[in-house]
């Protein structure tokens, strides 16, 4: 087995190291979710989030990584609640709808069947399930911010248990 060492700074990696690390790192599976959040001024949005992982059993927590370039970071850093809508493996309509992204004043949920969470955030009614939680911390991680969300409630849709969750595996660990 060949290996490569790194000091944690991607820009310091040699091209040879990137050639070895990239394909293996890209095979790290993660779930596919639609993150929904509000800004506190009545605006709501949703974004495709594929770097979501369970981070704790007790209390239940997940980590969510969001690219630094996304305006939604301002919203996440000024609010306390978020919802992660689980996407099923054949629900490509959600990828198509949320994959392009939305501007802050653009309606992210037009044409979708939605419900409301306990914190009054949009929930995708056709998703297999959702997790709602409180953002308890944020840390910087290279080109992303990582939010830790303590799960406070959850819900299931009609398709829960009937379809498998969508999993994201990339060809290369250095890009989406």
Structure description:
By secondary structure, the chain is an alpha+beta fold. The protein has one domain: Electron Transport, Fmn-binding Protein, Chain A (Pnp Oxidase, Chain A, Roll), CATH 2.30.110. It has three helices and eleven strands. The chain has a seven-stranded antiparallel beta sheet, with helices on both faces. A two-stranded antiparallel ribbon has the order 1-11. Strands 7-8 form a two-stranded antiparallel sheet. The longest helix is centred in the first third of the chain and has 12 residues. The chain is globular and about 50 Å long. The N terminus is likely disordered.
Which bin fits the share of residues in helices? Answer: 10-25%
Q: What is the count of DSSP helices, taking H or I runs of 4+ residues? A: 3
Q: Strand sequence of the main sheet, in spatial order?
A: 3-2-6-9-10-5-4
Give the total of beta strands: 11
Number of domains: 1
- Examine the secondary-structure arrangement and name the CATH architecture: Roll
Helix and strand content put the structural class at alpha+beta
């Amino acid at each position: 087995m060949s290996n490569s060492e790194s000091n944690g700074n991607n820009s310091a990696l040699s091209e040879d190291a990137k050639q070895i690390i990239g394909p293996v790192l890209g095979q790290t599976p993660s779930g596919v979710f639609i993150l929904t959040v509000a800004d506190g001024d009545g605006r709501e949005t949703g974004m495709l989030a594929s770097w979501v992982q369970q981070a704790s059993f007790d209390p239940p927590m997940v980590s969510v990584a969001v690219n630094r370039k996304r305006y939604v970071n301002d919203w996440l850093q000024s609010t306390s609640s978020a919802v992660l809508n689980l996407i099923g493996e054949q629900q490509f309509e959600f990828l198509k709808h949320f994959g392009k992204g939305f501007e802050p004043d653009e309606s992210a949920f037009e044409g979708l069947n939605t419900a409301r969470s306990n914190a009054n955030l949009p929930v995708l009614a056709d998703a297999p399930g959702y997790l709602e939680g409180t953002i308890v911390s944020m840390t910087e991680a290279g080109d992303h911010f990582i939010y830790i969300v303590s799960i406070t409630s959850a819900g299931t849709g009609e398709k829960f248990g009937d379809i498998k969750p969508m999993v994201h595996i990339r060809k290369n660990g250095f890009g989406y």
